[in-house]
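Run log, item B.
One chain of 131 residues. Sequence copied directly from the ordering sheet:
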Amino acid sequence: MLVDREILIKGVRPYSHLAIHPCPEEFIRDARLSDGSPVVLRPIRPEDVPLWYRPLKTFSKRTIRFRYFAPGKKINHEMAVRNCFVDCEKEMAIVAEITQEDRKELIGIGHLFIFPDLQKADLAVVVGNPW
């Protein structure tokens, strides 16, 4: 029994059945820092929540306040989840990831949010103080 013939004709976009669309893999890029160190630029993923906290430890209170509108260093799990679970149909978050001592570290995060009217957007970029 065929319910919707249009699906056969047009096809189905990958992940169209999900409420939050994962970011396409083609946004992953290898790059180099100014000192020549390798860095991977890639979309943020839900499993990045534990990594998301690490660069924030290097930020000043002022950086936290200006980037996350949070007083002092008051960052919580809800904020981490909100920043790591990104619907790529509406927004994009790109992280700069390095490998140090055989473990992944995020050293920077760029976040672009497009408003529903598609006429305006917010862009925020933050890089850990050591970088």
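Observations after the first pass:
- The chain has four helices and five strands.
- The longest helix spans residues 49-56.
Flagged for discussion on Thursday.
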